[in-house]
Amino acid sequence: MSLLHLNSMSLDQLRAWLKDALNERVPVPRLTPDERPDIAILACEGTLDKLTRRDLETACCDLVHEFTRSGEGSRAYVRAVLHLAVGLQLRDRLAGALAAMPSHLPNWPHLERAVQQTVLLTLVDLKAVQPAEFWLSMLAQDGDAFAGAALAGMLANSWEAGLSILPRLPERESFASAAAILIGQALEDLPPAHRTGCLRDLEAVLPSCSPALRDALHEVVEEYRGNSPPHTQPHGTRAALAACRKYPELAPCVGPSRKARLAA
Amino acid sequence: MAVFDDALATLPPPLRALVEAQLVAWGTHPEWQQVGANLRAECALVHELFTSLLHDFAAALQTDPPPVPEKAWKTTCKSHELRGSAMPAGARPAVLGRAWRVGAFAAAISETPGDLPEGAAERALRSYARRPPARLSAQIRATALGGAVMWATFHPDDTAQDPFTCLPESAEGIACALGLGYHRGGELVVFIYSTHLPLHRPTIADASSYSYYRPHHDPAAHHGYTRPLKPGVRPMPEVVHATVTGAALVLPYRIIA
Q1: Contact flag B31-A42 (C-beta cutoff 8 Å)
Q2: Considering the domain boundaries, does residue A174 fall inside one?
Q3: How far is A52 from chain B, CA to nearest CA, in Å?
């Protein structure tokens, strides 16, 4: 199966097809039978001709705007259409409408929490930086459900903005691990010359955080204390030996230690 | 008589005619033609379930206004998922394996519990493929590793082994052996896991509109087999089961180019 039949569709037909596809009412070329339709579409999008790709972007925008005006759509559909929008890089056309939903959509408070989370996380994935006030107002609405999006959104403003809300974030282990991932990535993105000072600022705020968050962030601090991030370390002998312990089939790749060679 | 023919024969003539007409109509479309062929060749559903599947499909085709047949088929299949025979305890593999797009894994992590943007999830997956730190492991453990019906493989010779040890170390090779027909290049993330959930033989209802599924010819077999994309490649065993979370996963996962 391919998406090449889309090349012969009008914009209206394509829009209707896309809505059906994202609602899983028509088949798409999935890698596995349970793959999400948006992921399958994005994998094949490059095979379409230029005009059809443009129409696909327009159709996706139309569906997102329809959603931002009504708030209607199942959790799975909303997730699919917004993820498609991110994959098609539609920030400039959609960020405003999505950011306006919490304040302008009358039934925003009645939308499923998971749908609201998806909207906010999409703003982050679109790299549509929202002012700190926006994220603070989201935290005020639901300090638990929106904590991840708010932290990511504040970190997109600045390192300092992200740190400033850490003490307010929930005591929930599942959130703590996500927060640690976000903080770790934000640290990686800092210029190396600034990292030490920013790490000190993070350590200073830890005592004010919830215990679960403190423990999770402590792991990040320990990785960075005086060292470069673990995944950027060169693949040295220590890393190779660690890999060999886990994967014995790699053992032939690591020769005897220098000490052992000298002894021989 | 094939199980399909047997089940079709039990339908009232008007419903039988609807199903037969739809299979003929699908004959002009390559993917749907294969779905029709799979339906005729399927022997993994017992007679009653096959009859129920065909009856429900025919009934859906009869609705007013007339539905899109492909939508009707997908809806019918949904209510007949995970109905292939369950593997007996003695035959169950200890280790299952699955291959996924990296983006799909990241999307799944982002979904539950909704704290991590997908871009951050994918970045973390790529950064820590061999040695996920505790913070990433925690996120993975809360993640659903597939949809409502998960497809998995296992090692054909030693079911306690990682099934990917007998497959090529390339995304193309893995996709070929597992019959992942819509792989158009790009990396795959592979992982192994264990579960106590029932493992079912896949059927046409689990595959739905996925045209790379092929029914296995032996009605008594405990599992199905993939259809490799190239001749001469050994098929891998396949089963389906309900969703499991990353708590079942044996870390680390691997990203294969």
Answers
A1: no
A2: no
A3: 19
Length of chain B: 257
B196 in contact with A, Cβ within 8 Å: no
The DSSP call for residue A248 is G
C-alpha to C-alpha distance for B141 and B248, rounded to whole angstroms: 8
Q: Is residue A82 part of a domain?
A: yes
Question: CA-CA distance, A229 to A164, in Å (whole number)?
Answer: 23
A45 pLDDT above the threshold of 80: yes
Which A residues, 61 through 100, put their C-beta within 8 Å of a C-beta on chain B?
79, 83, 86
Q: Please determine, for residue A250, whether its predicted confidence score (pLDDT) is greater than 50.
A: no
The three-class DSSP label of residue A157 is helix
Q: How many CB pairs under 8 A join A and B?
A: 151
> What residues in A contact B110, CB-CB < 8 Å?
121
A226 domain-assigned: no
Q: What's the CA gap between A24 and A80, in Å, rounded?
A: 10
Cα–Cα distance measured from residue A126 to residue A86, given in angstroms and rounded to the nearest whole number: 6
Phi (first) and psi of residue B252, to 5 degrees: -90, 165
Residue A51 lies in a domain: yes
**Which residue range is the domain that position A55 belongs to?**
1-101
CA A173 to CA A180: how far, in whole Å? 11
Given CB atoms, is A149 within the 8 Å cutoff of chain B? Answer: yes
What pTM, to 2 d.p., does this model score? 0.88
A174 at B interface, C-beta within 8 A: yes
Name beta bridge partners: B150.
B241
Q: What distance in Å separates the CA atoms of residue A32 and residue B98, rounded to the nearest whole number?
A: 10
The reported pLDDT for the residue numbered A226 is: 59
Q: How many domains does chain A have?
A: 1
Find the closest chain B residue to A127 by CA distance: B119
B30 interaction partners in chain A (CB closer than 8 Å):
1
Q: Which residues of A touch B182 (CB under 8 A)?
A: 1, 29-31, 40, 43-44
Interface predicted TM-score (ipTM) of this complex, two decimals = 0.89
